[in-house]
């Protein structure tokens, strides 16, 4: 994976966490 793709995945993951709260 490229760092750019990894960064996008991290952002998506944080959005899911925020959605839960």
Q: How much helicity do the residues have?
A: over 70%
Query: What percent strand?
Result: under 5%
Radius of gyration: 9 Å
| Morphology call | rod-shaped
- Average pLDDT taken over every residue: 85
- Main beta-sheet annotation: none
Which parts are unreliable, with pLDDT below 50 for 5 consecutive residues or more?
none
Number of strands: 0
Number of DSSP helices? 1
Q: Helix/strand/pairing class, anyone?
A: mainly alpha
Order of helices and strands: H
Distance between the termini: 29 Å
Protein name: BnaC04g08730D protein
Descriptive overview:
- With 21 residues, this protein is an all-alpha fold.
- 86% of the residues lie in helices and 0% in strands.
- The N and C termini lie far apart (29 Å).
- The mean pLDDT is 85.
What attributes characterize this protein structure?
single chain, 21 residues, mainly alpha, 1 helix, 86% helix, 0% strand, BnaC04g08730D protein
Secondary-structure map:
Layout: H1 3-20
Can you describe this structure in just a few lines?
The chain is 86% helix and 0% strand. With 21 residues, it is mainly α. The longest helix is centred in the middle third of the chain and has 18 residues, at 3-20.
């Amino acid at each position: 994976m490229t760092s750019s793709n990894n960064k996008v995945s991290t952002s998506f993951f944080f959005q899911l966490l925020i959605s839960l709260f």
